[in-house]
Amino acid sequence: MINRHRYLPISKVSPGMTLADDLLDKQGYILLPAGTTLTAGMLKSIGQHAIPQLSIAQESLSEQEQIVDYQQKADRLDVLFRQGPYPAPTSLLHDYVRNYRRAEAE
């Protein structure tokens, strides 16, 4: 059952992967709908549209993979907010994002 996605640079996407979201061009037209299994030809065509990354569907992660994924996101959040302490609005944003990531991991 597909319930997660990850953004991958086009260079790391391979044939057989599945789009998690509609792929839109610069004008907002759908190039490929969500759920499309990518082929080598599609990936070559996507390269001509200067699209840097794709939202790729992933199967559910194991409990251990979820822990590692959450820790990577928490570590990244710590890097982004490394200049603290912050005033109330920024501190609130930091807490909100951390709680969102925690709930997402559960």
How would you characterize this protein structure?
Helices cover 42% and strands 19% of the residues. The chain has 106 residues and is of the alpha+beta class. The protein has 2 domains: 2-59, Alpha-Beta Complex (Molybdopterin biosynthesis moea protein, domain 2); 63-105. It is elongated and about 50 Å long. The two termini are 17 Å apart. The mean pLDDT is 84.
Q: Report how far the terminal alpha carbons are from each other.
A: 17 Å
Briefly note the structural class of the backbone.
alpha+beta
Strand order of the largest sheet: 1-4
Please state the second-level CATH architecture of the largest domain: Alpha-Beta Complex
Tell me what portion of residues adopts beta-strand conformation: 15-25%
- CATH class group of the largest domain: Alpha Beta
- Helix share of residues? 40-55%
- Rg over CA atoms: 17 Å
CATH topology of the largest domain: Molybdopterin biosynthesis moea protein, domain 2
Number of strands: 4
In one word, what is the shape? elongated
- Put simply, the count of helices is 3
Give me the strand/helix succession. Answer: EEEHEHH
Q: Give start-end ranges of low-pLDDT stretches.
A: none
Which superfamily, in CATH terms, is the homologous superfamily of the largest domain?
A: Molybdopterin biosynthesis moea protein, domain 2
Q: How many structurally independent domains?
A: 2
Question: What's the pLDDT, averaged over the residues?
Answer: 84
Question: Oligomer, anyone?
Answer: single chain
The biggest sheet amounts to: 2 strands, antiparallel
